[in-house]
């Protein structure tokens, strides 16, 4: 098939062979343990959801404060036995180079603190228990 193509006000006659489109071939690509392409995708075990231990004791949700994000404990601002008001800072986490304050959801007294400075915490992990 012949085509006329104009570029910068100059016309060129070109001959083009029509070909059936070929399906793209899968090119294996690997980055960080993940394979993309014709090979199966492998998900690291750490990315899989983790179920709580079967022997863990049930927790009264109104008596605990859970971490809203995954991160590292920068500072524990509260102490066991301390009386709290709504909004008092309990723990400061660093997640993605930002600090997140975990605050008291309501007035009460701290029964236990489940984390220490430098600990890694996951989303939903209990960080403070109330009386």
Describe it for me?
This protein is mainly beta. It has two domains: 2-43, no CATH class; 62-130, OB fold (Dihydrolipoamide Acetyltransferase, E2P), CATH 2.40.50. The protein is built from no helices and twelve strands. It has strands at residues 2-7, 10-15, 29-31, 34-36, 64-66, 71-76, 83-84, 89-95, 98-103, 108-113, 120-121, 126-130. The strands form four sheets. The protein has a four-stranded antiparallel β-sheet with strand order 5-12-10-7, with no helix packed on it. The protein starts with a strand and ends with a strand. The model is unreliable at 50-55 (pLDDT under 50).
Task: Give the SSE layout.
Layout: E1 2-7, E2 10-15, E3 29-31, E4 34-36, E5 64-66, E6 71-76, E7 83-84, E8 89-95, E9 98-103, E10 108-113, E11 120-121, E12 126-130
Antiparallel strand pairs: 1-2, 3-4, 5-12, 6-8, 6-11, 7-10, 8-9, 10-12
Summarize the entry for a quick read.
Helix content is 0%, strand content 42%. It has a four-stranded antiparallel beta sheet, with no helix packed on it. It has a four-stranded antiparallel beta sheet with strand order 9-8-6-11, with no helix packed on it.
Provide key terms for this protein.
mainly beta; single chain; OB fold (Dihydrolipoamide Acetyltransferase, E2P); 2 domains; 131 residues; 4-stranded antiparallel β-sheet
Q: Name the CATH superfamily classification of the largest domain.
A: RNA polymerase II/Efflux pump adaptor protein, barrel-sandwich hybrid domain
Can you tell me the CATH class of the largest domain?
Mainly Beta
* Run of helices and strands: EEEEEEEEEEEE
Shape: rod-shaped
CATH architecture of the largest domain: Beta Barrel
Count up the domains: 2
Question: Largest sheet, described in full?
Answer: 4 strands, antiparallel
Distance between the termini: 84 Å
Tell me the number of strands: 12
Enter the CATH topology name of the largest domain. Answer: OB fold (Dihydrolipoamide Acetyltransferase, E2P)
Helical proportion, percent range: under 10%
Structural class: mainly beta
How much strand content do the residues show? 35-45%
- Regions with pLDDT < 50 over 5+ consecutive residues? 50-55
What do the pLDDT scores average to? 79
The Cα radius of gyration reads: 29 Å
Strand arrangement in the largest pleated sheet: 5-12-10-7
Number of helices: 0
């Amino acid at each position: 098939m012949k085509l006329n193509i104009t570029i910068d006000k100059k016309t060129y006659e070109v001959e083009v062979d029509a070909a059936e489109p070929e399906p793209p071939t899968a090119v294996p690509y690997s980055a960080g343990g993940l394979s993309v392409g014709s090979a199966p995708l492998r998900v690291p075990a750490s990315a899989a959801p983790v179920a709580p231990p079967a022997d863990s004791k049930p927790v009264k949700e109104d008596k605990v404060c859970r971490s809203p994000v995954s991160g590292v404990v920068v500072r524990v601002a509260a102490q066991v036995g301390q009386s709290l008001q709504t909004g008092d800072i309990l723990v400061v986490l660093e997640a993605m180079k930002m600090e997140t304050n975990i605050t008291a959801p309501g007035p009460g007294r701290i029964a236990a603190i489940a984390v220490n400075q430098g600990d890694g915490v996951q989303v939903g992990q209990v960080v403070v228990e109330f009386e």
